[in-house]
Amino acid sequence: MNQPDLAADAVVKRYGEHVAVDSLSFAVERGSFFSILGPSGCGKTTLLRMIAGFIQPDGGEIAIGGKNMRGVAPNRRPVNMVFQQLALFPMMSVGENVEFGLARRGIGRAERRRKAEQMLERVGLAGAAGKRVDELSGGQRQRVAIARSLVLEPTLLLLDEPLGALDLKLREHMKIELKQLQAEFGTTFVYITHDQSEALVLSDRVGVMNQGRFEQLGTPQDLYYRPASAFVAGFVGDSNRVAGRAIAVDADTVEVETGEGWSVRARRHGPAAVGDAVEAFIRPEAATLGRLRNQLPPDQPAHEGVVESLLFDGAKSALLLREARSRREFRIALPQTGQFADLKPGEPIVFSFDPTRATCFTVGSDGRG
């Protein structure tokens, strides 16, 4: 097995009584795109700053390129960082911005200009070296910041929510560009975000962080289809959360009763017993809609509801309904055929879902509140 470009072993960071990073261990393979995904305050930026060397861990070790980083200053680490605000120098040209780190290393003017122009060409900005930073679009400035980092040939490129300041359309475009740039350069990217879409689209592997620890490490597909905890099931992607008590448990599934006479079945994750407080998570796209029961799969339990509203968003359109017994809200992805586009609020509707595509956790079983 190849030496990982980044390895953390039982890393801890405390601020007084607060444990920001809690005995965290993981490794990032060479040439991969690794994202750290989590809500604000979960410890992800603290972790990134320890990797960069801006703060020191209180315990554990960080190795980059197989070398222990204990006591190694930020400017001595084979790492570069791209921040959300980019930190480009407005008084310098685009080329001078890209050359800046090379100049600090003592590389001659002709050589650093050649390297900067080559790098700008590789990120799609050929001929832009003489332009001012304020002449560029947001996406172009993002590419200059990446070029300035990659020209130094770091082992790791750390990106701290770099797309957060962009508008939605440009952010969607830059996600694709970032993924393509990482694949072309083969540099190991470590990416911090609270945006699940960015993590899922960009990454080879993702660490979902909560309260200073990783709830789950895996591929985007693992996190989405096989969540390891209730936190991951609720945080990654959209889910309908149905909380209640287990009224039946077998080897594979749990039947959850909500207390208002409505029950659903879901795939069991971890131990569960009759009477336990449990939560089922059902993806909007896992459900099937029908105007009549015979329009639903015959092998799936049917549920009744009333249309609350249609949420039109093109291919991401959804139906919001109220389940008839519990009056609980339930979201279902609409088929792209337009089949249910004429539904109106107040209309009766039926729906079903495959219990094997829903996940059930015992409340508190994953050690998170």
Description of the molecule:
The protein is of the alpha+beta class. It has 2 domains: 6-231, P-loop containing nucleotide triphosphate hydrolases (Rossmann fold), CATH 3.40.50; 238-362, RNA polymerase II/Efflux pump adaptor protein, barrel-sandwich hybrid domain (OB fold (Dihydrolipoamide Acetyltransferase, E2P)), CATH 2.40.50.100. Helix content is 23%, strand content 34%. It is built from 8 helices and 20 strands. It has helices at residues 44-52, 94-104, 109-122, 138-150, 168-185, 196-202, 220-225, 230-235, and strands at 6-15, 18-28, 33-37, 59-64, 67-68, 79-83, 156-160, 188-193, 205-210, 213-218, 240-249, 253-257, 263-269, 277-282, 287-290, 303-311, 318-323, 329-333, 348-353, 358-362. The strands form 4 sheets. It has a 6-stranded mixed β-sheet with strand order 6-7-8-3-9-10, sandwiched between helices. Strands 11-12-13-20-14 form a 5-stranded mixed barrel. Strands 15-19-16-17-18 form a 5-stranded antiparallel β-sheet, with no helix packed on it. β7, α5 (168-185) and β8 form a beta-alpha-beta unit. α2 (94-104) runs parallel beside α4 (138-150) and α4 packs parallel to α5 (168-185). The chain is globular and about 75 Å long. The mean pLDDT is 90.
